[in-house]
Amino acid sequence: PNPTTGKVQWSELKNEEITLRAYDALGRLALEQKTTEARVDLSGLPEGIYFVALIGEKGQVIASKPIVLSKR
Fold first, then answer.
1. What is the pLDDT of residues 26-60, one digit of tens each?
2. How far is CA 3 from the centre of its chain?
3. Residues 3 and 72: beta-carbon distance below 8 Å
4. Kindly report the CA angle at 2 between 58 and 25, in degrees rounded to 5?
5. Residue 69, Cβ neighbours under 10 Å: how many?
6. What is the C-alpha to C-alpha distance for residues 17 and 44, in angstroms, rounded to an integer?
7. Over 70: is that where the pLDDT of 62 sits?
8. Which residue in 11, 69, 72, 12 sits closest to 41, CA to CA?
9. Radius of gyration over alpha carbons of the chain, in Å?
10. How far apart are CA 64 and CA 53, in angstroms?
């Protein structure tokens, strides 16, 4: 869901190592995490708008989306 309280998931790209990068509204890297899971928890980040990109094993951008993180 968007906005989210932290949990973000995607339905494609199962069993592939993905690098998730979350950038804050100023373009600063707020989180970088490698995973083979189809979900990640952003609840450790402050509230705000983040641009989230999924990077594939070969360095290609697979998906990108703005995410609104709300603690309410």
1. 999 999 999 998 889 999 999 999 999 999 989 99
2. 13
3. no
4. 70
5. 23
6. 22
7. yes
8. 69
9. 12
10. 4
Residue 50's closest CA among 12, 14, 8, 15? 8
Q: Where are the beta strands (DSSP E) in 10-60?
A: 18-23, 29-35, 39-41, 48-55
pLDDT in tens, 5-27: 999 988 876 678 999 999 999 99
What CA–CA distance (Å, rounded) separates 34 from 48?
Answer: 22
Query: How far is the C-alpha of 44 from the C-alpha of 26, rounded, in Å?
Result: 18
Tokens at residue 17, please? 């190592």
Written as one letter, the residue type at 20 is L
